[in-house]
Design goal:
The chain is about 45% helix and about 15% strand. With about 280 residues, it is α/β, with parallel strands linked by helices. The strands form 3 sheets. A 6-stranded parallel beta sheet has the order 3-2-1-4-5-6, sandwiched between helices. It has a 3-stranded parallel beta sheet with strand order 7-9-11, covered by helices on one side. A two-stranded parallel ribbon has the order 8-10.
Length: about 280
């Protein structure tokens, strides 16, 4: 009885301190989907904790295998943090409601099986349907591409095969980043949506795209005629960029040679977004 009281007291103290340090739930509601592999759990928890401390509200969804392997570890390490709850995977109605409420989806740990199915637009389980729904309706989907890789003996052919699948998923509009950049990618994604007047836009793809294109003052926002324009610094323009441009009412500018995915071209033509390569 005494131990229960102490545990509840500790959790309450942690919750109040966290809220004073930034975990105030003032930002978007995010659905965190964890799938059935146990790689990089500690790093995943660290990124989820960082999201909460930045003010995001977090709803955790575990696949059946993830629930059996590391769900307790994640929940215990996040215990006491405010604005964190677990969605019951056995109640599809609740899952669907929480998905609709969420303004974005993150995948800190993704099994190769899940990524393979998503790359082929297939879904057989609740968590796969959630991810496919995000792709289908254009809800922000951010995936830690290395979240399912663990151990020191990963063979190159496996890494290459995974890269092909992740590239397909990016074609559908998802953002793929490294595990260590998951929280900051999520934050920058929503910050860019809110702060249209910033001098330059840094979108999530920049995390994986290598050295950015040198900044050119001539490519800053141009509001003298037509829509305002935003300079993209990554090497690939995807459907997520087009969605972002439509929401904020501007055209895009990128360096000559940047790859524009077929889906991005089609969406830009349909939505009236001009992509200028200079």
């Amino acid at each position: 009885m005494e131990n229960d009281f102490i545990n509840k007291l500790v959790i309450e103290v942690v919750s109040r301190l966290a809220q004073k340090m930034g975990a105030d739930g003032s930002r978007q509601t995010i659905l965190a989907v964890c799938t059935g592999c146990n790689g990089n759990v500690e790093r995943a928890v660290d990124q989820l904790r960082h999201m909460v401390m930045k003010g995001f509200k977090l709803n955790l969804f575990f696949s059946a295998n993830a629930g059996n392997t590391y769900r307790n570890t994640v929940e215990n390490q996040l215990k006491g943090l405010p604005y964190v709850q677990t969605v019951n995977p056995g109640q599809w109605g609740q899952c669907h409601d929480e998905f609709n409420k969420a303004e974005g989806v993150v995948v800190p740990i993704a099994s190769i099986n899940t990524l393979s199915k998503l790359s082929m637009l297939m879904a057989d389980t609740p968590h796969e349907h959630l991810l496919l729904n995000a792709v289908t309706i254009g809800k922000p989907l951010i995936i830690a591409g290395d979240g399912g890789l663990f151990g020191s003996r990963i063979r190159k052919p496996l890494v290459d095969a995974l890269g092909v699948r992740l590239a397909s998923i990016q074609e559908y509009g998802a953002v793929v980043c490294e595990m260590r950049a998951l929280a900051i990618t999520l934050e920058s994604c929503f910050d860019n949506q809110q702060n249209v007047d910033t001098q330059q836009t840094i979108l999530p793809e920049q995390v994986l795209s290598g050295p950015p294109v040198p900044n050119n003052p001539a490519l800053s926002d141009r509001r003298s005629s037509g829509k305002p324009k935003k300079h993209l610094k990554g090497r690939v323009v995807t459907a997520s960029h087009i969605n972002f441009a439509v929401q904020n009412g501007y055209d895009l500018v990128c360096a000559d040679g940047v790859i524009v995915t077929p889906m991005a071209k089609d969406m830009a033509a349909q939505k009236g977004v001009k992509i200028e390569q200079v």
